[in-house]
Amino acid sequence: MARQVIYTFKGQTKTIPFSYDIHHDLYEAAAEAEGIDLKKFLAMEQQIALTSKKGAKAEKEFRKSEFARFGFTSIKFVREDDEI
């Protein structure tokens, strides 16, 4: 089964195909599907990764808060047992 990502953007739930050949992670795939440019976000995320301790929550919290600011409330992989 091909991977799929289900996400909610500004109150509307959508499902898109996902491939690691095209995207680094599911967040980037969802952002591309909505036409969001992540250049500045990725640069800042890289800076946080370089300055925070390995395994620290800083990167995860930054990603979570920024995607919420973009309008995403949920982003996850579709499991085989999930109903779309």
From TrEMBL:
Database matches in InterPro entries: DUF2960
Pfam hit, one: DUF2960
UniProt protein name: DUF2960 domain-containing protein
Organism of origin: Shewanella inventionis
Phylogenetic placement of the source organism: Bacteria, Pseudomonadati, Pseudomonadota, Gammaproteobacteria, Alteromonadales
